[in-house]
Design goal:
The chain is mostly helical. It has helices at 7-13, 18-25, 29-36, 45-55, 59-62; strands at 3-5, 63-65.
């Protein structure tokens, strides 16, 4: 089952740019872009918590699993 990252969906819902999110969570745009495009191999829980706090959402709003 592939894991899908819906960061772009949450950014659109919150009308926030990747640059704004990067500033709020103190990460580089490159690292957030890798996460957004699904190219990241993993994400730390503290990073996920910071992203969720900035976007006022839960991890399940960002991370999903597609059935095979």
């Amino acid at each position: 089952m592939p894991i899908v990252i819906n960061l772009d969906v949450m950014l659109a819902k919150r009308k926030m740019s990747l640059t704004e999110l990067a500033e709020k969570v103190d990460l580089t745009i490159v690292n957030l872009s890798k996460l957004k495009t699904g190219k990241a191999k993993g994400v730390r829980f503290d990073t996920l918590k910071a992203i969720c706090n900035a976007l006022d959402c839960k991890p399940g709003d960002i991370i999903d699993i597609e059935p095979d």
